[in-house]
Amino acid sequence: MAQLEIGLNERELKRHGVLERLNSGAMSQVAAARELGLSPRQVRRLQRRLETLGPAGLRSARRGKKPNNWIDEGRRAEAVALIRQRYGDFGPTLAQEMLVERHGRVFSVETTRTLMREAGLWRAKRRSIRFHPPRARRPRLGELVQIDGSPHDWFEGRAPRCTLLVFVDDATSPIQAARFVAAETTAAYLDVVGEYIGRHGLPQAFYSDRHSIFRVNAAESAKSSLTQFGRALAELGIEGICANSPQAKGRVERANGVLQDRLVKLMRLAGVASWDEGNAFLPEFLVDYNSRFAQSPGEPEDAHAPACPPECLRGILCLKETRKLSRQLTCQYHQQWLRILPPKGLERRLVRAEVEVRGHLNGILEIRHNGRVLAHALLAARPQAPVVDAKVVQARPAPAKPAANHPWRQPFSPAAAAAHVMAERNSARP
User: Fold this and answer.
1) What is the CATH topology of the domain spanning 145-217+226-293?
2) 244: CB partners within 8 A, 6+ apart
3) What is the pLDDT of residue 426?
């Protein structure tokens, strides 16, 4: 109670208790600093103040004083009068700039916003639905291909939920490639890209969302590095474009909506009950879909470039990572411990050397050094967790709906509520 009479708040009382334990030898300075969230030097300073001034020394010296950024009523009234007289229809940011530049009244933007809001000169506008004007189609086939993944219960419970990867041409709106996969992954996209290139050739650009598969989202490295997908496109000479909103790639988004209605129902009628059956069903379905919804391009020329040889394409559409070998010529790659089996005479050259590990889409690993393929052996491997689509993880769960006989839906009755609780308890018993 003595500390309360002195006027210590909860934080200062906690500091007093920790310092008492510190002085009694019950804890160390490092432990006290960790518990208080301070440095050991600050703890020693508080110890000296407690020894010199007693518990009152733990009180903040700023208590009861105005903050350093306090604005007196005269300055506030003067600023409000200036804004009302000359800048009544300005926003807070522009009004603050005018006060500083023309009148020498220095306020922050947030302070100006507060003054204008309290004076009734400004209020936050409600965000209206943004109108997105339609973007003109690219004139030629293959000039821009919109790609996206759509996680959905495509088989209505007959098979596990999965994701449909969809490639839609921007000029004509046909679906050029589609495949059911477990989740949106780099390997899945690269596999479908290989199928697309083998069938149509090299497009000029792919248009995607801002998923981490397509762009490095870390601000400090977004301009200096590429994802595996971006690296593959760069080697193929294909431009990768990331949309700033779902509306920007509306053609593939609308195609997903149509597929979630039309494709699901047709697969139900056909009795498709697995991913493999669904992928076998897609080619016939896409022929009908494209005949219904495809449009003629603005220009007749095809913008696709000739595809590179299959072996070259295989060496590009894979996962490439650099590893540094240990003294024992070993390295780790995706929970796998690998050991190089070099030819005789090259052992010493490969110690601490950098090698390129290629993870091909068929699961084969290839290790290269200076263009030479090195034999390797798998020493150990850890089981990997199943891949979960990021869009599924981030999706909001559907709100739970109470049952029709739930008391929440009925007029309140203590007897009915008690009976409902007893019924739930009885049903929960084994």
Assistant:
1) Nucleotidyltransferase; domain 5 (3.30.420)
2) 210
3) 73
